[in-house]
Amino acid sequence: MKCVYCQKEITTKSSEHVIQNAIGGFLESENICCPECNLAVEKFVDKDFVKIFSPITNNIDYLPKRASTESCYDGQVMCAGQFYDAKFKGRKIISVPKLQQERKCGLDKIKGVVPKLFYFNLQNDVFKNGISKIAFNFAIHSGINPDFLMDFVNVEKDGFNVSSIKFKNLVIPFCPLNIVDSKIEFRNEIQLYHNLILFSNGKELWCYVDLFNVFQYYVLLSEKFESSEKVLRIYAQKCQKIPLSEKHYVEDLHYVKPKHISALLTIFGVTYEECKAQRKEGEDDFSLIRRVINEKIRKESVVSSLSDLVNIGGMVEFVDLLKNSSDTGKINLYHNFSFYFDENDNLIENNFRQYFIDGDGQVKFYPHEMMDVMQSDSKMIREYSSMKFKLMCNYILKTTALGK
Ligand SMILES: [Zn+2]
Fold first, then answer.
1. CB count, 10 Å around CB of 100?
2. Most exposed among 75, 110, 248, 271, judged by the fewest C-beta atoms under 10 Å?
3. 41 C-alpha to center of ligand 1: Å?
4. DSSP conformation class of 303
C-alpha cells in the first residue's frame, strides 16, 4: 500500500485520525499515509485548524486531558452593561484590553466581568484545508481509490520530503433548506456530535462534514468519480460525556481474572502487540491489557447511530409542526418528513443531507442548491451560522466554569 501524499510504499504503519484527535475525533485509519507524511499533515494542516475550535476544546470535558490543550482564544465579555473584546486562556479570561485601559488597572481589580461570546474564525484557508482533509481521509478510509481524489490535493516536495500539503476542494456551507432540517438543527438543547456522510451523485463525490453539530459543510471530493453503484458511508460520533449508565460494563473489567485476558483480547479485537506498544513504565501485562481494552470501549461507546442523533421525536413532533404550518407548508412538510424518516421514525440515510423536496414537489440535490444559495442569498447562510455559533457559545457558558 502506498502513502497518498509521498507515494512511497508504507513500510511502518501509522494511524491517522480521520477527524483530528484534538477536536475529539476517534476514528483512525492506517490506510492513509506513512509516519513522515502523518507528521507533515499535522504541521501543514491540523495544527492551525484545531486552534479555531479552542473555545470548545478548552471548555468541554469529554476530551482526554492534556496540559497542552490549554490555549488562547478571543471573544467578548460584558461589564456594567457594555460589551468588550477579551482574551481567554484555558478556562479563564486573561485580559480585556479596552476595559483595563479605561480603568487603568489590571483585570484582577475589575469586578463583574461576564463572558458572553467566543469567536470562530472560519474565513481563511486554514479552515478550508482542515475541513477538506477530514472529507479526504474519510473517503480513503471508506475504500475510495485515491486516484479519484488527488485532483484537489497539492503536495509539494523538497527532495524526498513533503514540504507542503494543500487542499483545493470546493467547500460549501450547509444551511437547512426545508422545514424538517430546520427543526432538526434548532432543537432546544444543542447536541454535540461529529457526523460525516460520504455520497456520490453521478460523477460527483461529496462529503458532508458536520463538526460539533455547528460547523456544517459540503466538500466536493471528485468530479470524475466512477463507481458501479451509489456510494454512501456514514460516521457519527457523540462529543459529550457518556452517562455512567452506559459505561457499567467498563467497570466490570476490574473483576476479570488474568486467565480470561486472552478471551477478552479476542472479543474486543485487540492484539497483544498493540497493547505492548502502549505500555507505560512499570505496568504489568494484566493492567496494561485492561487499560487498552477500557480505552477501546470508551472510544467505541461514543460511536452512535445517526438516526438516534437527528431524531426529532417522530410523529408527535410532526403533528405539532403540521398544526402550525400554512396549507402549502403542510404539503412540503409532509413530503420532506416522509422523505427523511420511515414509518418507524428511523432516518432514511439515502436521502438525509443529500436531497430534499422543494415547494414544487421536486427532488433537489443539496450541495447544488447550496451553491445557488451562496450566490443569491448569502445573508441566509450568515444568519444561520451566526445562530448556530450563538447556540454553541450558550452551551459552553452554561456547562463550564467560564460561565459561572
Ligand atoms: Zn508519505
1. 15
2. 248
3. 10
4. B
